[in-house]
Amino acid sequence: MSPQATALLLAHVRQLITTARQRVAKAVHAELTLSYLHRGQHISTELQQGQRAKYGKQVIAELAQQLTAEFGRGLSEQQLRHRIRLAEVFADLQILFTMQRELSSSHLKALINLPPPARPLHRLAVLPSPLALAGRH
């Protein structure tokens, strides 16, 4: 095999690896986001039932402590509250699915912490992707 053919083969294999890694990262991000939403929905629903609403802070603290002991970091009280907030803000799953394809977890977190008037979720969800816009030029 000539050096040029080897270089071309190497470039193609590198591209295959890079593309596969990007697809895996997007799939993991999507699954984590959905998992965060489901956790938030479940916790929120349980806290709203009966007397639990009064003791929500205590319940979240206990839940965080037990989950952290079992699964390690990433399940603190603050993080559980973020999951609850995510579920409240993104009650419409289609908007979340659309946005999570284009935004990182950090962006979603920043968005859910904006006050409602500054959070134009329905308008953002219908915007074309940055990649689609780039292809128009």
Keywords:
137 residues; mainly alpha; 7 helices; 0% strand; elongated; disordered C terminus
Give a verbal description of the structure.
There is one protein chain. This protein is 75% helix and 0% strand. By secondary structure, it is an all-alpha fold. The chain has one domain. Residues 126-137 have low confidence and may be disordered.
What's this, in brief?
This protein has helices at 3-48, 56-71, 77-89, 93-102, 105-112, 121-125, 130-134. Mean pLDDT is 81; it is low at 126-137.
Radius of gyration: 20 Å
SSE class: mainly alpha
Poorly predicted regions are 126-137
Q: In angstroms, what separates the terminal alpha carbons?
A: 39 Å
Total domain units: 1
Mean pLDDT over all positions: 81
The biggest beta sheet reads: none
Overall form: elongated
Number of strands: 0
Please work out how many helical segments DSSP would assign. Answer: 7
Strand content: under 5%
Please give the share of residues in helix. Answer: over 70%
Order of helices and strands: HHHHHHH
Draw up the topology in text.
Blueprint: H1 3-48, H2 56-71, H3 77-89, H4 93-102, H5 105-112, H6 121-125, H7 130-134
